[in-house]
Design a protein that fits this description.
360 residues, 14 helices, two-stranded antiparallel ribbon
């Protein structure tokens, strides 16, 4: 929105041209979302407490979690508000990639909101039935896949690039639709599964989102893309603003979500942020690198799959409890230790992912 205003005023006031610089708008996106989160956080938490919108804790989980019962939840709504405000202010709203990411973020946020509302407000322990949750996630995922496929302006946008190699690409054809679907829906549910401890999911989300912002800038810059032998996709640089807004909002939310948490993200935040990361990874053509950087999310998801499969096939459990973070809690690790160690692993994986940009 302010980009349009700056373009209009530039002929009359030359300093307005500074707002055309992507790096500046990315920084402003971070600061705007951070300030919105920090300023509205206390008010949001008070409102949730007044309305008694608190987290229900499972009796079969770690006993240390029983004290979390009643902690305000659905904090993801604050995250999405901060991100949206920042993006609408600083992003170029004529960019199709920005709208694709916003569509998934808001749609998945609504799905998560319905799930949280039924659990917390209506006291329905099942929330939104899994089949309906996956149905609406799938509808939105397929819709954005079709949009990206039909609006692709070059073959580069629908090819799969393999890291560590300069010229290894796979023409996916219609298989691109399946790739987008699995990456977006899978990332959304992976972040949701990880969101089980105070700050555990939000910090890796911030780190991976920030790394994707760097990749988006490089992929959208012809000179950098050529130098690094990565795909050049015009327009992806504008996602720097969204990634910046995600990072800023996430850090602001972490201020209140850090151990011991004053507010939880809920499905409204986890599903939306995971979906956003997935669609950004697809747009910048770095799905495999995204898989590497999101190793914590992947391990959490795989632990659930293995646990369910093992119990159904053999009647035995591989882990003391799934997702994986609960396994370490039941082994005696204090919650902060689990959280910080998972953060450290994410830092290492993100650095490995970024290193692939040069190791070709």
């Amino acid at each position: 929105m302010l980009v349009w205003l700056a373009q209009y005023l530039e002929p009359f006031f030359r300093p307005m041209a500074v707002f055309q610089y992507l790096t500046l708008r990315g920084i402003l996106g971070i600061m705007t979302a951070l300030c919105v989160s920090l300023l509205l956080g206390p008010w949001f938490i008070r409102k949730m407490v007044q309305k008694q919108i608190g987290q229900a804790v499972r009796n079969d989980g770690p006993k240390s979690h029983l004290s979390k019962s009643g902690t305000p939840t659905m904090g993801g709504a604050l995250l999405l508000f901060a991100i949206s405000i920042s993006v609408f202010l600083w992003a170029d709203l004529t960019n199709r990639f920005v709208w694709a990411v916003l569509f998934i973020t808001i749609t998945y946020g609504l799905v998560g909101w319905v799930d949280d509302y039924r659990k917390v407000i209506e006291k329905n322990s099942r929330g939104l039935p899994a089949r309906w949750k996956y149905f609406w996630q799938s509808v939105a995922g397929i819709a954005v896949a079709i949009f990206l496929y039909t609006t692709a302006q070059s073959p580069v946008e629908t090819q799969l690039y393999v890291p560590f190699f300069k010229n290894v690409t796979l023409d996916l054809g219609w298989g691109y639709l399946l790739l987008v679907y699995f990456v977006v829906v899978g990332a959304s549910n992976a972040v949701n599964l990880t969101d089980g401890l105070d700050g555990l999911a939000i910090m890796p989300t911030v780190m991976v989102g920030s790394a994707l912002g760097i990749i988006a800038y490089l992929v959208g810059h012809a000179n950098f893309a050529t130098y690094l032998h990565i795909p050049y996709v015009p327009g992806t640089g504008e996602l720097v603003v969204f990634c910046g807004a995600l990072a800023g909002a996430g850090l602001g939310f972490l201020w209140f979500n850090t151990y011991p948490a004053q507010v939880f993200m809920g499905d409204v935040g986890a599903l939306a942020l995971g979906g956003a990361l997935g669609v950004i990874a697809v747009i910048v053509r770095h799905e495999i690198v995204f898989f590497i950087m999101s190793g914590i999310f992947v391990m959490e998801t795989v632990s659930v799959i293995l646990q369910v499969a093992s119990f159904k096939l053999t009647g035995r459990r591989i882990f003391r409890m799934a997702p994986l973070h609960h396994h370490f809690e039941l082994k005696g690790w204090p919650e902060p230790r689990v959280i910080v160690r998972f953060w450290i692993i994410t830092v290492m994986l993100v650095l490995i992912g970024l290193a692939t940009l040069k190791l070709r």
